[in-house]
């Protein structure tokens, strides 16, 4: 009987099980069994497995670069483009990889010599060859095996897929993943520093610690996981473009304005992660808001317009520490956020959590100190009043400032933007 294993096993058991199961299985099945076992590994486990091989083959190389190569190679194996990747891997000097991999594997795991050892060595070499090709040549050269230049209709298909999933997956806050997708795009873009030209949506570095673990990004794994099927179906789109396009789709699908968008963002490795503290701290007030947004190049009017995104979603005690929605319709974008700021009476919430405000009439809504700062400051308040009276003016300014936010720091090759048709 052929031994089996489960991807639910702990990572260290999965990695150890591959050579063991091959060794204990009937000889004639071993050649077929090896790729089956590898495909049964979880994506994270396979990535660690490949990273370990690269560490053996390139002991003096940059750890972050090897980790990025391992992740890219693993993702490619999980996509329809994997067959072209395998063909590309044949350009690697396989003999060298096989010799080094067999020697490294024997040293690391104590593999015995013989037919099974050669099979395992060959299996390891195949993995190392593909990953090594990624490491030495980069994923872009692998993509070149089948040149594909996406057009607007291709991006519309990505948009449509996101819109479809928003309808199908209604088991998140208030029945929609829309608000958390907007938050993902916002936080991926809001790290930009105009002085140092670092951060911003170009890179999608929230995929890695430490940036993914920053307190301001707590809970955003839900949005990233939501988009995994989209990335799998459209492997040609970068995470950086996907996240911002998802933000556009979410805004439009929640009855917001159309947001002009253009592709051209490139994914980067962990070395490009931004330091903590670049995103707004909700417990602060006017001075902090201006410091954060002025760093990105926004003025007072743009700060207030961007704050209108708080019409969507809610806060969670297990993430930010705050709790509750800002409006009565947290999955629909309107100017209600500004209306409520101006028309409702707000008082400190009596609870054990951080300082926040609640509406006096229903005690079901909340505002953060940064929200209340918008009506304490004379300049900010003038724009709150404007948007509370005119939803069209809010939509116009919101569209422009979101477009600007999503493009900060991106070296685009084209000035042409596209707009997307919302679902019906």
TrEMBL record:
Question: What keywords does the record list, in alphabetical order?
Answer: Heme, Iron, Membrane, Metal-binding, Mitochondrion, Oxidoreductase, Peroxidase, Transit peptide, Transmembrane, Transmembrane helix
Can you cite an annotated GO cellular component? mitochondrial matrix
Top-level division of the source organism's lineage = Eukaryota
What start and end residues bound the annotated signal peptide?
none
Q: Which residues form the Plant heme peroxidase family profile domain?
A: 169-424
User: Subunit structure of this entry?
Assistant: Forms a one-to-one complex with cytochrome c.
Name a Pfam family for this protein: peroxidase
Give the subcellular location.
Mitochondrion intermembrane space; Mitochondrion matrix
Please state the Enzyme Commission number of this protein: 1.11.1.-
Which residue windows are transmembrane per the record?
A: 32-58, 118-136
* InterPro entries xref list: Ccp1-like, Haem_peroxidase, Haem_peroxidase_sf, Peroxidase_I, Peroxidases_AS, Peroxidases_heam-ligand_BS
Chief place where the protein resides: mitochondrion
Quote the catalytic activity from the record.
Answer: 2 Fe(II)-[cytochrome c] + H2O2 + 2 H(+) = 2 Fe(III)-[cytochrome c] + 2 H2O
What is the documented function of this protein?
Destroys radicals which are normally produced within the cells and which are toxic to biological systems.
Q: What is this protein called?
A: Peroxidase
One GO term in the molecular function aspect is:
heme binding
Kindly list the biological process annotations in GO that this record carries.
cellular response to oxidative stress; hydrogen peroxide catabolic process; response to reactive oxygen species
Q: Which family does it belong to?
A: Belongs to the peroxidase family. Cytochrome c peroxidase subfamily.
